[in-house]
Design brief:
two-stranded antiparallel ribbon; homodimer; Arc Repressor Mutant, subunit A; DNA-binding; alpha/beta; 7-stranded mixed beta sheet
Chain lengths: 332, 332
DNA sequence: ATTGGAAGTGGCATAATCGACAAAAAAGAG
DNA sequence: CTCTTTTTTGTCGATTATGCCACTTCCAAT
């Protein structure tokens, strides 16, 4: 029976504490109950807070932990909950936990972080030179604070053998099942995921992420071009056209554009088009062919490749995730 | 700003309290933060327990509610958390809540149940003659206790206009997003689901459900046939063959089989085959054609239809959900 | 079982794009 | 004004994007 400790941070999202707890708790149990077999729990789960007192989570909800972090003995794995709200403030409020994590790690305990909990893990310094992930919306901040960590923004889970990270918010489920599989085998993990009515095959958080279209720079010409792209992406656009609009040499334009926005013109245009395509695919009754033409591409096959590179999913799969359904069982 | 109350039951699964809370809490907030816009919360969420004191959840975790149910004023919607463990005992321990729910409903508040929370909702009597759903593993118990409720075991969500139910465990996410869509519009709901890295397009919990193969009866002949089917389903099987094995007339056999197992022989055989097909599809590199032949069908096209009827998904989609992936980002 | 439409894969050719390097221009220092 | 340093611009070749075609698979309906 493996021992899991969940580090309940001050300012955590409550569900990032209870979610993993329930996932591990239900392993070997919920499926068995549902199928009329005898439950056989696989894990012992302890929720620990920095000082052993109730932890104030988002929405002013208090969770009473089982103990303080210093009372934790012989954990096999520690899971760091997600910070809701101001990450940098939360780091300051959880200093003891950071030191404690380092000591635990040195004594052989594995550590996994959830969503913005990766900031706490990075703060320990243990991630230096290693691969990590966090919520897609916090990538810039993370890179700025921890340039030595190799961040994989599109990964849902990273595995360094003894350090794990998971992507945004509800990716704690994927991480939990991944760890359950590692610790108790695939069958238990699949059964647990099915009993919890939760998929267990996601590979990336790319499809969930929003693109940034940086407008925070001062280059008026470039801003104008950005706006123009966003209004005219349905038509064929070439770099030459864009350069002309700024009265620049093409090569110069490319450089200036990249410097201002962080993206090359094509990459930017692609993002705008992918973004539009996503929105179109979310509507019912859309085919990828229509969408392709509508966002300004001529060829389904090549746009499909681009779409896949950006979202990590085939068009049909993307639709499955977000397409509007009209068939909820109404009054029967 | 709509007011949501979450009813924290004694003996609840903690994540069924905090999960919906965070979903509503993040609506209009998390996406905005992630995209660098100003957060604008859509909901005010209150967690209420029967007596206002901390609620003991599964794994002996205590959650402190914001208030007692009797302090709740002007709620628009009440969400009933899920019971973990012994449902009938939990009903006894939460009597006050049941009366309170009835009064709230009569005064115009909408009510939604999560997973086994449907038992509490059914206990109020409000579901009589209406459509409901609950965790797929609790269907038999539910039908026995509440025969007048029209249970849709495969539905992930049911909507009676002012009464909602959701299926197993993590279906609280789907329900939360569904309600967010109803109350704040589709855009907010989709953004919230993406920010939480959670899909928003699931329609049924059928793919997650396990079949029961009832062996609890005393008819030795029938039991023998059941076992025989489970060992020989890869071959062509006809009812006549099965009847012969029991030395019964075919019609008699069918009646006896159904009486003992609750299923017709064909339905039973189908379930066994679907079950095997599911397991095969979960292995990497399996094609539906191979699987079809392997489980004893001759025709892909017709087996596809059967598969869809039982699981609610096309074969390819099922694979996507549960097929083993080997590409977690390891030490970079 | 056949059929048709849509989804998805891969190869190939061509045009577009971008990184690296170097030339040119501009700015600064003495 | 000359020399140095910095910035901008242009060129070349490698890489990438895109369109086109052929072909397979998936799926629904006949």
């Amino acid at each position: 029976m493996k021992k899991i400790t969940i580090l309940a941070l001050r300012g955590a999202a409550a569900s990032s504490i209870t979610g993993p707890m329930d996932a591990f708790l239900f392993a070997g149990v919920l499926w068995n109950i549902a199928c009329g077999q005898k439950p056989s729990p696989c894990f012992e789960i302890t929720v620990a807070s920095p000082d052993g007192k109730a932890v104030k989570c988002a929405n002013r909800l208090y969770i009473e932990p089982h103990c303080a972090i210093h009372d934790v003995k012989n954990a096999d794995l520690i899971m760091i909950s997600a910070i809701a709200g101001d990450v940098e403030r939360a780091i300051g409020r959880n200093k003891e936990a950071i030191d404690w994590l380092v000591r635990q790690y040195r004594s052989g305990v594995h550590i996994a972080s959830i969503c913005t909990g990766a900031f706490i893990l990075a703060e320990t310094g243990l991630l230096k030179g290693k691969t990590a992930t966090t919520h897609w919306g916090y990538v810039d901040l993370f890179r700025r604070r921890y340039p030595l960590v190799h961040l994989r923004p599109d990964a849902l889970i990273t595995d360094e053998g003894d350090l794990y990270c998971s992507g945004g918010s509800n990716a704690y489920n994927d991480l939990s099942f991944y760890l359950i599989e590692k610790l108790s085998g695939r069958d238990i993990a699949v059964q647990c995921s099915k009993a919890m009515v939760q998929d267990f095959g996601r590979a990336t958080q790319a499809p969930y992420a929003a693109f940034r279209f940086p407008k925070g720079h001062a280059e008026q010409d470039i801003l104008a071009v950005q706006r123009w792209i966003e209004e005219n992406y349905t038509e064929g656009i070439t770099i030459a056209m864009l350069a002309d609009r700024c009265a620049m040499g093409q090569r110069t334009f490319e450089r200036r554009f990249k410097q201002s926005t962080g993206e090359s013109p094509i990459a930017y245009l692609q993002k705008v088009r992918i973004n539009a395509a996503k929105a179109l695919l979310e509507r019912p009754h859309s085919t990828f062919e229509e969408v392709t033409y509508h966002v300004g591409y001529e060829d389904i096959s090549s746009f499909r490749k681009i779409f896949q590179r950006h979202t990590g999913l085939r068009p049909k799969e993307y639709q499955r995730l977000f397409q509007q359904r009209n068939q909820i069982q109404r009054a029967g």
